[in-house]
Amino acid sequence: MTIASLPLDSAVRKAGWRLLPFLMLMYVMAFLDRANVGFAKQSFQTDTGIGDAAFAFGAGVFFIGYALLEVPSNLILARVGARAWLCRIMVSWGVVATAMMFATTETSFSVLRFLLGATETGFFPGIILYVTYWFPERARGRAIGIFYFAIPVSLTFGSVLSGWLLDLDGLGGLHGWKWMFMVQGLLTVAVGVWAYFWLDDRPAAATWLSADEKRALQEELDREDQAKTAHGAAVSLRSAFNPTVLGLTLVFFLVQIAVYGLIFSFPSIISQMLGRKMGLTVGLVAAVPWAIAIVAPYFITQWSDNRGVRKPLIVAMYLALGISLALSTWAAPAWGFAALCAAAIGYFSATPILWTHITTQLRGTAAAGGIALINSVGNLGGFVAPNLKSWSEATSGQPAVGMAVMGATALLSAIVLALLGERSRGG
Q1: 378 contact partners, CB below 8 Å, separation of at least 6
Q2: Which of 56, 78, 400, 405 is the most exposed place for a label (fewest CB within 10 A)?
Q3: Residues with Cβ < 8 Å from 222, sequence gap 6 or more?
Q4: What is the spatial distance between Cα 354 and Cα 141, in angstroms, rounded to a whole number?
Q5: What's the predicted TM-score (pTM) here?
Q6: 318-372 pLDDT per residue, tens
Q7: HEC string of 226-244?
Q8: DSSP string, 318-386
Q9: CA distance 377 to 121
């Protein structure tokens, strides 16, 4: 290590401790508010009379609202700064998430789910873009991997919290699912306000970095931007719409179908395995695969950064995800549960590396627009997942077929990525 590298290493280390835990907290709330509908399913449908098809549509329509404004939202963030824009996003979606407690008809349920997606739009790609402002490429895979811990943390913590809140059924004259939506939505509003006072837009504004650390970090980030340009990375918004980016969008779309098919169905699968209604016990068991998935991605993303291996590792993990999902509902309960654990590890280990791979392809305005394009179109897989799964199960008359179809989409995503060319060096 040279003397010149000391301020840079110190700045990256400080940024990691300062920013990543809070970004994780923010994404915990995001994933909790979009995925808790799976826990509400049984009691919500019982209390409101909403059928399976209408529930599947409402669960998925979130992603239509999410996709519509994703690209402009990220372009606005790039202009006005992450602190103010991420705060705005969180507070607005927290208000809508709280209002979900008043969804009692098919129409109100679908409208509020659509609005929840529309208000959350831009959050995830905004975070990914924000990470590129603070972490050089050599540390970015690990940083995104740590940030991605938020999804299994959210599902672990959220499974237990959601189960406990559902057990409050009748307290204060409210159904358990109303307590769940209200408490989790208000927590999001609180974290959104906190974000405004905690985040800094760029290294130059960080009072917790020394002048040498600010300069070293910004110089390294600027040097990487120049290197990307020299190696053909897309820079303008128009240049982001190239075959490589469109191919990566298809990869993300397919794998999102697989993972949201799992996430929306997982509480019901565990409830059926245990023969118990949704509540704290189901929540505790449902938390296990996500808890396991918290640990593995750290070591796998670290290995990826150290070796510089990106695409082959992602392909292998998505293949494992597809096979695990396909086997999960055909095997005996114990083996099926193990397969679900393997699926969680595969997805949460590979996807941070996928986003690191994506950020090597883009810079400048293209990074803001391209990341948003991949995420917004890709997340439409969340709309397709519950509807495709419901349709395949109803058509075949076999509940296990639905999860096998989800697994097939993960296998297809791996194949598309393996065949996809590169635009710039690395990966």
Answers
A1: 249, 251, 252, 253, 255, 256
A2: 400
A3: none
A4: 9
A5: 0.71
A6: 998 998 888 877 777 778 888 888 888 888 888 888 887 777 766 655 666 677 7
A7: HHHHHCCCECCCHHHCCHH
A8: HHHHHHHHHHHTTS-HHHHHHHHHHHHHHHHHHHHHHHHHHHTSB-HHHHHHHHHHHHHHHTTHHHHHH
A9: 12
